[in-house]
Write a structure and sequence with these properties.
It is built from nine helices and no strands. The protein is mainly alpha-helical. The longest helix has 26 residues.
Length: 210
């Protein structure tokens, strides 16, 4: 096998491990990642596994980055194809809720699990999780600010406040669906944000009625 072929196979192996790690962590948390368990599940030798990661913490850090990449590919990038302004902001929220409804991850949301697990635990993993959340909230705020600048949200809207509300409703859709077995939670979260945006939009016809 050529050098390029070995490198490609190694990259595919690493990506398969990270896919499995993110799925597992969405249910059992990042501390639930077992190098041995992942190796067994994927049929990879432990020696092959350790060729990719020197320790569990590095695997956790890479899992956070991989989950962020997954989030970007399935939620952020598609949302950016919607028209700039309030429609893009609502598309972002709908895509996030669809990600949950489609059960892309068995635990619903990797980041919600990681945030509750590491919010009081110092260290590099906490910093990485915290930065991912900061980046996400900053992105929502930018979309809100963009909608204001285009005249599609009232000029007195506080981007930070609205971003907080949208994020809170997104998180509740996960916890209520899973913990309360509330199968309408996703629709409630969708409608709540839709109604909020329509109330703040000078031209609510830009958004669906329901």
């Amino acid at each position: 096998m050529t050098h390029d072929g070995r490198r490609l196979r190694g990259q595919r192996s690493r990506e398969a491990i990270l896919d499995q790690a993110v799925s597992l962590a969405s249910v059992e948390g990042l501390d639930g990642l077992s190098l041995g368990r992942l190796a067994t599940t994927l049929g990879i030798s432990k020696s092959g596994f350790f060729a990719h990661w020197r320790d569990k913490e590095q695997l956790q850090l890479d899992a956070v980055d991989w989950a962020a990449r997954q989030w970007t590919e399935q939620i952020i990038s598609p949302a950016l194809r919607a028209p700039a302004g309030v429609r893009r902001l609502f598309a972002l929220h709908e895509l996030r809720l669809r990600f949950y409804a489609d059960r892309v991850l068995p635990g619903g949301c990797f980041f919600l699990a990681a945030q509750t697990e590491f919010d009081d635990r110092p260290g590099e993993v906490r910093q990485r999780v915290s930065q991912a959340l900061r980046d996400w909230l900053a992105f929502i705020r930018r979309l809100v600010a963009e909608a204001i600048s285009l005249g599609e949200l009232r000029p007195d809207v506080d981007p930070g406040q609205l971003a907080y509300e949208i994020e809170a409703l997104g998180e509740l859709a996960v916890t209520h669906t899973r913990l309360l077995d509330d199968h309408r939670a996703v629709e409630h979260a969708r409608r709540a944000v839709l109604q909020r945006l329509r109330a703040l939009c000078p031209d609510p016809a830009l958004l669906p009625e329901d």
